[in-house]
Amino acid sequence: MQPKPLILKILDVVSIIVLAVAAYLALVFAPTEAVMGQVQRVFYFHIGTAWVGLLGFVIAAVAGILYLVTKDVRWDRFEVAAVEVSTVFFFITIVLGSIWARPAWNTWWTWDPRLTTAAITELIYIDYFMLRQGIEDPEKRARFGAVYTLLGGISAPITFMVIRLFRTIHPVVIGSQSAAAQGGFSMTSDMKVAFFFGLFAFTVIFIDLMWHRIRLGNLEDKVEQLKLKVSM
Amino acid sequence: MMDKKTATIDSRPETMNRPSSIVHRPSFVKATLAIVQKDLSAEFRSFELISAMLVFSLLVIIIFNFALELDVKVRQSVTSGVLWATFAFAGTLGLNRSMSVEKDRGCMDGLLLAPVDRSVIYFGKAISNLIFMLIVEAIVLPVYSLLYNVNLFRLDLLGVILLGSIGYAAVGTLLSTMSAQTRTREVLLPILLFPVAMPVLLASVKASGGLLAGVELSEVLMPINLLIVYDVIFIAIAFMVFDFVVEE
Amino acid sequence: MFLQAIPDTSNYMIAGYVFAFVVMGIYVFSIYLRNANLKRDSEMLESLEEEQSKKAKKK
């Protein structure tokens, strides 16, 4: 295991700082939303985690393709790290959304396209780890994992399009005037500051966590190889 | 990648000393049909798989009957859902069986040794899985029509069922090849398959539900289009990645 | 003109943020824990390997 590089140490500190600032902006700086009240503040972290969650799944699918093409283990570790960190963040997204939905829609859960797709996507990536756990040969594990992230990454958007044919009440906050959808609201400029800083903060945290997870993957591989060596 | 493959195929006759008449490479379609024929003739000798899928489907319908209290009113709105749930469950049963048979009897190794492109194996297995599904559906549909007095034999509805089954068999064959090589095997397939095949199932439910409710074909065009898109994309992907799933 | 009172939903907000921080904390801790375990394993295995190579040399 290489010693922790300096950039990573700096990134750790920066992550903690931006997380604190993002929390401050979301909790104190941004004005209270008039219709829903305080709970609307959950939205800043909801979007931030959703963004990095989706980003990670896209990265994982790309890393999967690169692994299949190059057969380089590093892409496999990259993919695992992306999926794992994203699964955690996406879980936070779903629960935060649910907490927001309770006062806004008066229900913890609705079968709306975004919610349902989010739940199915999260399940796909939990399945990903179950699949990997069931395979002993590391090379095969990497191959199957790459194929599955690819399948998941392609089926998720189609799932979304299909469910949208059924119904939706999820508000579209950016890039649409359909604030008429229940729970929609328009952002003031202070809200936008908190919103965009949240996106930035979670991107930094995501990179930091992924880096740590990749290093963990390297260590895992090293231990696995040592075990083989010693048992021989 | 292509070069490597042809190289191994070409070098085989020398190492194995086979008569050259066996070694010639059959055409893609011929080889695929040979695999389909092998599966079908094995199945028609015993009817193990089809009878299991069939009995299972009928049991699922019976369970739904009581679970949902399928009286006349409810029935109309849930028929397509019940049918697709049945097909999906029976489908996993068949997919699991057809792959674990290959694995257990070592047939898969034999297939992999055959001097054909790997994707031939994929298409062969996918087509025979599709045929098994269609046979089961062909029996379940009239039985369902009879039991609940709804007419399910309409060309548009059958078209949707065919499209849905194609998508389901396409992904299912790929994933069952993967799950057959894991420790948990049969348990893993539905878990892997259902979330990925969700678009097929939901679009099929939506399209056939609309058709059964008697709406115009143009109103269910969207789910049908998505079904076609899904089918095309996933057949193409499975075709591309199948190599990675059977590599030893 | 009537003013609508802002509903008091702070409890939900607090629950949401506590949840988010707890989950992130658990995840970071899990990385730390796995890292520590693996480090211990690798040290142990390395010393084992050394012993083995010493034995091999004696023979």
Please, could you describe this protein's structure?
Chain A has 232 residues and is mainly alpha-helical. Chain A has one domain. Chain A is 76% helix and 0% strand. Chain A is built from 6 helices and no strands. The radius of gyration of chain A is 20 Å and the shape is globular. About 3% of the residues of chain A have low confidence. Chain B is mainly alpha-helical and 248 residues long. Chain C is mainly alpha-helical and 59 residues long. Chain C has 1 helix and no strands. Chain C is rod-shaped. The mean pLDDT of chain C is 84. The chains are: A mainly alpha (232), B mainly alpha (248), C mainly alpha (59). Chains in contact: A-B, A-C.
Helix content of chain B: over 70%
Poorly predicted spans of chain B: 1-20
**Structural class by SSE content of chain B:** mainly alpha
Envelope shape of chain A: globular
Taken in chain order, the helices and strands of chain A follow as: HHHHHH
Number of helices of chain B: 10
Number of strands of chain A: 0
Major sheet description of chain A: none
Elements of chain B, N to C (H/E): HHHHHHHHHH
Number of strands of chain B: 0
- Biggest interface between protein chains, with counts per chain? A-C, 40 and 29 residues
Largest sheet of chain B: none
- The helix content of chain A, as a percent range, equals over 70%
In terms of DSSP E residues, the strand content of chain A is under 5%
Distance from N terminus to C terminus of chain A (CA atoms, Å) equals 22 Å
Protein structure class of chain A: mainly alpha
